[in-house]
Design a protein that fits this description.
The chain is mainly β. It folds into 2 domains: 63-170 and 277-299, no CATH class; 175-275, no CATH class. It has helices at 25-58, 194-199; strands spanning 3-5, 8-9, 14-15, 19-21, 63-66, 72-80, 87-89, 95-96, 115-122, 129-132, 148-153, 160-168, 175-177, 202-206, 212-216, 228-236, 241-242, 246-250, 253-257, 265-285, 297-299.
C-alpha cells in the first residue's frame, strides 16, 4: 500500500515535499508528530536568534563628545549611499534603521557622495553652531530637525575616516563689499576675529545672473574653512538683504550662489564667526560591520 505524508504549516507556509514510501497508517502519524516537534524546536530557535539580535542592538555604543560648557556633540549614524539602497550603522559598527525623521542626506548636490553622517548636538547657546574643515557638504534647505545636522562626502575605497567637528562662536559684523567683490572700506572688528576679517582681500564673484560668491584670501594661507564659517548676502538698492539660493562647489568647498535676476543689486556683504573648539571623531567606519575599529573623541 502506498501512502503520502504531507505537512502544511499555515503559520510558516512551509510544505514538505510529498514523500512516497510504504508504511502503515500509525507509522505515518508518528512521523508527522516527529516533524511537528522538529518545527516547533526550529521556531523556538529562531525566537532566540531574534532576541539575541535585539540584545546585540541594545549593546551598541553611541559616541558623544562633552564640551567644556556642558554642550554635547554625538555622532549618531553613518549612512552608505548606494543605488541598491541606503544602509546605516552606528559608529561602533552596529547596524541601525534609517529613520524618516532624520535630515535627508540626499538633498545635497555634490559629486556623487558615497557616505552621509548624522550628528546630534545639544546644550548649544543661541547663535552657536558646528561646522567641518574636511570635504563634507551640508544639505540644501529642506526639512529641518532641531538638534540634528547631516553632511555627505565621497570616500572611495577606504574603510574608515577621521572627522573634525568645529564649535563656532558668535558672528562678527557685516562687511560691505562692492558688486565686483572689492572692499573699499573696512568695518571695525574687535577681538579674535580681527585678523580673520583682515585676511579677506575680496570676494570672488563668479558669474552674473547667478553668481557663485566666495571669500578670496592670499594664496597658500591656511584654509578659511579650518578657521571660521562665513555668510554672504546680496543687498539691493533698498538696503534689503537677500540670502543665497543654494550652494555650489568652489576649490573643494561649498560656496553660496545667488539669483540676481529679480534683485536690483547694490552690494554684497559678508560676516565671519570663528571656531572656538574642535572635536575629532577618529576611525569612523565606512563599512559595516567593521571589526576591531575603535572610535575615539578628542577635544582639541
Amino acid at each position: 500500500m502506498i501512502n503520502r505524508c504531507v505537512l502544511a504549516d499555515t503559520a510558516t507556509r512551509l510544505i514538505l515535499i510529498p514523500t512516497v514510501f510504504t508504511m502503515s497508517y500509525w507509522n505515518c502519524l508518528f512521523a508527522n508528530l516527529l516533524i511537528v516537534t522538529a518545527l516547533c524546536s526550529a521556531s523556538n530557535a529562531l525566537d532566540v536568534v531574534s532576541d539575541s539580535r535585539r540584545d546585540a542592538q541594545s549593546d551598541c555604543q553611541s559616541v558623544v563628545a562633552a564640551l567644556r560648557d556642558g554642550a554635547t556633540i554625538e555622532l549618531v549614524a553613518v549612512i552608505r549611499i548606494d543605488d541598491a539602497g541606503n544602509i546605516a550603522w552606528q559608529p561602533d559598527g552596529c547596524m541601525t534603521e534609517i529613520s524618516d525623521d532624520w535630515p535627508d542626506v540626499l538633498r545635497v548636490k555634490n559629486d556623487n557622495p558615497s557616505h552621509g553622517f548624522l550628528f546630534k548636538f545639544d546644550g548649544f547657546k543661541k547663535g552657536r553652531g558646528i561646522g567641518w574643515d574636511t570635504r563634507l557638504t551640508t544639505p540644501l534647505p529642506g526639512k529641518l530637525l532641531k538638534g540634528f545636522v547631516s553632511v555627505t562626502g565621497k570616500f572611495p575605497k577606504v574603510r574608515s575616516t577621521d572627522i573634525r567637528v568645529g564649535v563656532l562662536g558668535e558672528w562678527g559684523p557685516w562687511q560691505p563689499v562692492e558688486v565686483d567683490g572689492s572692499i573699499t572700506s573696512r568695518v571695525n572688528v574687535a577681538g579674535p576675529s580681527t585678523a580673520l576679517y583682515t585676511s579677506i582681500d575680496s570676494l570672488n564673484v563668479m558669474g552674473k545672473s547667478k553668481p557663485l560668491v566666495a571669500p578670496n584670501r592670499e594664496e597658500g594661507s591656511q584654509p578659511l574653512a579650518s578657521l571660521a564659517e562665513y555668510e554672504v548676502v546680496a543687498v539691493d538698492s533698498q538696503g534689503q538683504r537677500h540670502r543665497r539660493k543654494g550652494v555650489g562647489v568652489w576649490k573643494d568647498t561649498q560656496a553660496p550662489y545667488f539669483d540676481l535676476s529679480k534683485i536690483d543689486l547694490s552690494s554684497f556683504e559678508f560676516r565671519l564667526r570663528p571656531y572656538t573648539q574642535w572635536v575629532e571623531f577618529k576611525n569612523v567606519p565606512l563599512e559595516a560591520p567593521v571589526p576591531d575599529v575603535e572610535v575615539g573623541v578628542t577635544e582639541l
